[in-house]
Please model this.
Amino acid sequence: MKTLYLLTAIAILLICKLPASAQVKQLNELVYTKQYIQLEQALSGTNLSANDKMLYSAFLTNAFNQPAASNLLLKKIFARKIAANDGKLQFYLHRIAYDNYVKLNNYKAAQTASEQLVKYYSTWFSKSELTDQQEENKIWAALTATPAQQVHKQASSSILIKKDMAGLWNIPVQQQDSNYLFVFDTGANISTITATYAQKLHLDVVKNSQVSIEGGMNGVSTKVNLGIAKQLYIGKVQINNVLFLIFPDSALSFAGGAYKINGIIGLPVIKALGEITIGKDTMQIPLVIHTEPVPHNLALDLLQPVIYMEYHGKSLPFTFDTGAQVTLFSDNFYKQFKPHLDSIAKKDSLHMGGAGGSRRMKTLKVPQLTFTIDHKQVLFNNTQVNLEETQVSDKYYYGNMGQDMFAQFTSMTINFVNSSIAFGSRKESVK
Model:
């Protein structure tokens, strides 16, 4: 731990001692590579102008789930034409402006911002990213007259969690006198439901809202509609105007129908809960969210949660997915630590699948990896490292953390207000 802090401090000190123009270049790189924790630390010690500090603060408030504050900063940045001649930086600024509106459930503003991205900054997208952005624009265009999601906490809640046959967490979702078990998935950008359960929950299907959603390892597209649940309850939390993607039943049916998913509660609902603590078989949602300042180790990159863990003296960003059973390290992780991994690992392969198909990927099987988060060790035994190239949108992440990571602790508290994840004591059975 001391070595880690020393290395991080040295890196930040080196940035702070650079001339202002060189500092800006280094800080931009931290933005582009999703290193928001390092950006926050470096920004506090630089001698940048007030305009430059405002610019990087806009990125940080966006990443740390303060979209309204980020938008206020962006309004000043665009009015003052800060960094107006830097095309790449302008693309990133307009992208977080778009993301802020999505996080605020301001669908009309999100559509406008999305159209501007496609019109003025299409060359900065990869081909697949541009296609995704165009499909997202169809979603917001269909929702321009839809009220924003709203959350009302009536009291603190204690909810039973049930693991299904695939090992995924399911929580009860109530509508009127009926309860339904839905998968609790931080990796889902938008909540999802089958056509059958959309009828059971009396969802209002949005007119002219069909979009294509890519899923599975083969990238097969599925045509889905948008639906709005006027009112749902999770424990004693009332949620109004919940957006769902309505999939054909067959798309969420696996193993010949032996395993079916009724619906998935995704990140827009989960982050709106503010704070949750997950234990062995319960989820606690406090009425009053803890807001004491704590070090950040959680960010939201667009609608994708990212956690920061330390390995070999480096703070690395990982996607964070309660809907994944196991952790998978990316090719970025392999490239960063190739000599070390080659010396301890063996070549292997892993079968991966989903609603859109499946395939086998080339991997390394590593006997053990040790990380640190929240001042606690996380161990991965006989874990897999992907050797195949990551999707463009994920090229700066070092893997996806799944339930085998969370299961090492007695509890996990996710606080979206403080942008932090804290863990309980380590389970004795985990070695």
The chain is about 30% helix and 35% strand. Residues 87-103 form the longest helix (17 residues). The longest strand covers residues 357-373. Residues 298-423 form a domain with the Cathepsin D, subunit A; domain 1 fold (CATH 2.40.70.10).
